[in-house]
Design a protein that fits this description.
By secondary structure, this protein is an all-alpha fold. Helices cover 67% and strands 0% of the residues.
Length: 95
């Protein structure tokens, strides 16, 4: 249950993710293999039209999309160096 609440809280902090993603991909502290992995995950998420819950179900169809986006972002935060987490105030959330 605690994980679920953490993920919901992360959703409300999603606005901080855009600058974080920019810095993540431009950072010299993160090796290119990790960057490539996340590029593949993000592009795969965008390109593959498979949904667990179809999007035409009003309100419910977006739940699996949002969940997957949150999971990818949480994984990026966990793999980021502490300096980047601290810069974007994710350090307490990532532990």
């Amino acid at each position: 249950m605690k994980r679920f609440i953490t993920r919901i809280g992360f959703l409300f902090k999603f606005h901080r993710s855009i600058p974080f993603m920019k810095d993540f991909f431009l950072s010299k502290e993160i090796n290119n293999a990790k960057k490539l992995l996340f590029i593949i995950l993000i592009l795969g998420y965008i390109a593959l039209p498979f949904d667990i819950i179809p999007d035409f179900l009003l309100g419910f169809g977006i739940i699996d999309d949002v969940t997957l986006a949150i999971l990818i972002m949480q994984l990026m935060v966990k793999t980021a160096p502490d300096s980047l987490k601290r810069k974007h105030q994710f350090l307490n959330d990532a532990k």
